Amino acid sequence: MLDPVIAFVFNDATIREIGVFVVKALLTDDRQIVRTVRDALKESNHIFRRDRELVLRKKVVKYFPDLFGSGLGIVAIKREIEKRFNCGNKLPQHNWNRLRKALSLVELPTGRPKKSDTKRVKTVSLV
User: Fold this and answer.
1) Half-sphere exposure of 72 toward its Cβ, with a 13 Å CA cutoff?
2) Are residues 61 and 42 in the same domain?
3) How many domains, the chain?
4) Residue 8 to residue 2: CA distance in whole angstroms
């Protein structure tokens, strides 16, 4: 599922360089690689704002393509996340904001809905 994304974001030279680094560590029994990978994961979680709402985000990411492939709006997606992954309970606003930012979702619409652009024209009868 992520292979096309990885191929798009990283070039072959980067992937090869990381592969050589990992294989060299495996061949030389370098235990430092475990700490390096752990630190890299923590840093990437922080960079991509995945370090908050970690448990809920992991649950949602598994079904992420299904949620967006269904063509639902952001309000319906939030309701579906609350229903499926939060035991039907409403998410507090700060938790929703953290999850929304971690998943790069748009904000919920706020305020009153816009008035329609069409105006009704009153017709007057001259009879």
Assistant:
1) 16
2) no
3) 2
4) 10
Distance of CA 73 to the CA centre of its chain: 15
59 part of a folded domain: yes
Residue range(s) defining the domain that contains residue 89: 54-102
Residue 107 lies in a domain: no
Residue 1 clears pLDDT 70, i.e. is over it: no
116/103 Cα distance (integer angstroms): 32
- 116 domain-assigned: no
CA distance 68 to 82: 15
Region of 114 (left: φ > 0; alpha: ψ -120 to 50; beta: rest) is: beta
**102 CB-contact burial (10 Å; exposed 0-12 / middle 13-18 / buried 19+):** buried
The token duo for 121 is 């024209």
Are 73 and 98 within one domain?
yes
**pLDDT digit string (tens) for 94-118?**
888 888 887 888 888 776 766 666 6
Is the pTM higher than 0.70? no
Alpha helix locations (H) across 1-127? Answer: 3-9, 12-27, 32-47, 54-62, 64-69, 74-85, 93-102
